[in-house]
Amino acid sequence: MRVVGIIPARYGSTRLPGKPLRLIAGKPMIEHVYRRAEKAACLSDLLVATDDLRIKEAVEAFGGKALMTAVEHQTGTDRLVEAVGYLDDLGAEDIIINIQGDEPLLEPKMLEELAQPLLTDAGLVMATLKHRLTDASELDDPNVVKVVTDLNGFALYFSRSPLPYNRTGAEVAVFKHVGLYAYRKAFLLKYASLERTPLEQAESLEQLRALENGYRIKVVETKFDTIGVDSPRDLERINKIMERMGEVE
């Protein structure tokens, strides 16, 4: 069974235009993501799916693989589906991992944790990650998505609101969702063809479409966390972290 990592990367960004090419420690952000992802032992292949020739050329310049996709895509999932359509050698049960292109501190182990359930259980079609929330300020932050699962680790709900609401003060762990996804190819194509659902639109969370249509999402706990880059301030923060890590050129 093959596991293919795809990094959707678009040039346009309201708050940070040209985000994949913004420099972090002397290298474009997309290179950091790619080089970390390629260290994951589970990946059979890795490529960037982009809408801009400048990104494609930058990826190829550091030795990565990239392909062009349409400019019109509204979501990374749409771009992922187009890219998968060009990979003729993928079987229906092969696994596709959607890797966020704006998380340059990605830990390769996270991709291995994500792929493992689908590699060991043929009945699973989709998986994602969660990380224990320890910063109280993130609980009320709508940009930090929370997730609750059943006793077997399947998602019950994702929300931008505090979740769960702890009325009694009982001891219960709170988890934030880490936006990496693994899909079986056949399910990915079906999922992307489904109409947007009411809760998905209300929360602006694409993964709710799967739950609302009755599909199960396996949620794996990881000890690793990531930092997304959405603004110049985030970019400055990441550069400082890289400097402390000794990764600045």
Structure keywords:
249 residues; Spore Coat Polysaccharide Biosynthesis Protein SpsA, Chain A; 9-stranded mixed beta sheet
Describe what this molecule looks like in 3D.
By secondary structure, the chain is of the alpha/beta class. It has one domain (3-244): Spore Coat Polysaccharide Biosynthesis Protein SpsA, Chain A (Alpha-Beta Complex), CATH 3.90.550.10. It has nine helices and eleven strands. The protein has helices at 29-37, 53-61, 76-85, 108-120, 136-139, 185-193, 198-203, 208-212, 232-244; strands spanning 3-9, 23-24, 27-28, 45-50, 66-68, 95-98, 126-132, 146-149, 155-159, 175-184, 218-221. Helix 3 crosses helix 6 (185-193). The longest helix has 13 residues, at 108-120. 37% of the residues are buried.
Question: What order do the helices and strands come in, and which of them pair?
Answer:
Blueprint: E1 3-9, E2 23-24, E3 27-28, H1 29-37, E4 45-50, H2 53-61, E5 66-68, H3 76-85, E6 95-98, H4 108-120, E7 126-132, H5 136-139, E8 146-149, E9 155-159, E10 175-184, H6 185-193, H7 198-203, H8 208-212, E11 218-221, H9 232-244
Parallel strand pairs: 1-4, 1-6, 4-5, 7-11
Antiparallel strand pairs: 2-3, 6-10, 7-10, 8-9, 8-10
Helix pairs in contact: 3-6
Task: Please give a quick description of this structure.
By secondary structure, the chain is an alpha/beta fold. The protein contains nine helices and eleven strands.
